[in-house]
Amino acid sequence: MKQVLMVLMVLSVSLFGQVYTIPQSHAAIQVYNAVLTGATAGVSSSAFSPKDWAGVATLFIKGDTTGASVVLANQSDSCLTIGLQLKAGSMGWGRPYDETTTYARIDTVARSLINTGGNVLYLNLANKVPDAWAWADSARFWMSIGTTDSLTLTLEVGGQ
Questions:
Q1: What is the structure's pLDDT at 69?
Q2: In 10 A of CB 70, how many CB atoms?
Q3: pTM of the predicted model, to two decimals?
């Protein structure tokens, strides 16, 4: 009888027990901090490891034109296009299968938002990047503005 009660107790604990998964937190890291100059090919940020990023990831954007020595020279007349590039091991930087570009376009930020000095924006990447990015060895952001423009720009990424 004691054995039957013991088996029932073990089964009830295993049936009603809960498993908790603690997400890995990734503090925001700076991946770009320079004057972005317009170029046909665009410019890439520093690479970072997206390994084990499961959950919400956020890209922080600060287009600051107030600290430039010549303020008007660092104001973009065009919007900021942001994309994502992924790398697998020694194969190099890839591109999405269904796109002809070398990056997956995430979003385009209006010029009125990036030309406001000290204005910090953020993009929730959970709905904008493919889930497979957490399996890549490296990731980096691709940025582009008009070919004759320049913009003082800082990017940081963080999440789980």
A1: 47
A2: 8
A3: 0.75
Domain coordinates of the chain in residue numbers?
24-159
CATH of 24-159, one of 2.40.10.350, 2.60.120.380, 2.40.50.100, 3.30.70.20: 2.60.120.380
pLDDT in tens, 7-44: 666 666 555 555 555 556 778 899 999 888 887 778 99
